[in-house]
TrEMBL record:
Residues 26-52 are annotated as: Disordered. InterPro entries: DUF8137 (IPR058450). This is Uncharacterized protein. It holds the Pfam family DUF8137.
Amino acid sequence: MTHECDDCGASFETLTRLRLHDCEDVQPETPVGSADLEQSQSAGSSPADERNASVAELDTLLDRFSDGDRAAPHGTLAEFESALSAALEEDDGGETYRDVFWRYHERVSDALDEAARATGWSFLKEVMDAYDPTADDELPLVTPTIANAVGRNLIRTRLTESVEAIPVAALEYLDTVAVTAGDTADTTQEEVHAYGWGIGHPDHSVADRLHARVSEDIFSVTPTLEHAFYADQYAAVDLLETLVRDESIDGTFSRPARDDMPYRRYLLDCAYGLKTDDHWPGMPRYYDWYEEFDDTFELDDTVEQRIRDLVEAAGFDADLPNDWAFRDLGV
């Protein structure tokens, strides 16, 4: 599949080449803003001008996609990243950046997801390669949006095919993003939780990777483990037992007006909703997989008992009611 630049018309074999090629001297065939904006661009654009131009083009591409142009998603990420980059340069405490991101995160995620459903994993593989999270010192600004689409299709593949059908590249991408994102990149960390759906993959050990990064990444590992229960509750409870029993995981986090909580206790938060019908993992955003597949989940009695035995063996039942339920494990 070739990809065409919307500005200069040049064709490229991969999204990487499309993303990196230089056609700055080529003017768009149609205006992207007002005459004043065009004049300011010719004289040297400000970040606000650049943002407005990218946002206008992004709107155009998304509208084209909605009208049936299946090639439009190939340019949306570049324009989205350009708009975010320009917004980041505006000195307003990040308000403009947040406004642009949350205005388009869902629409671009939806477009990427729909394109992936139409063409298969090959599309997302090119996107992951073009926006490699390890290529630069900082993650590409569109990383949360890519992770959202990857997560949706990872879940869908597991539910409609098998864990073996999930590309290793997708699991490696989400794991790398989680490791690279850092503690302050909350939205990015949240969008990778679907990584748990890869548990049991024969060529990529999700369990080993989560175990390796649990001490440094507890707030991502715990909700990822929650996802793993919906994918394979038996493999997930094996991992939960391994983690809670590992006394080398000795970190804690502070809570206002309460005692510090051990990481191993926080891991049990993953079981909060396993015995209810009104709680499902909230990531990836804008995607209710349980509604798409009319999915139901029933915790096996033996798995439930293993979790209860684990809580008691670790002594974490001391602060729970005598008749504690799984919701009492929530933090």
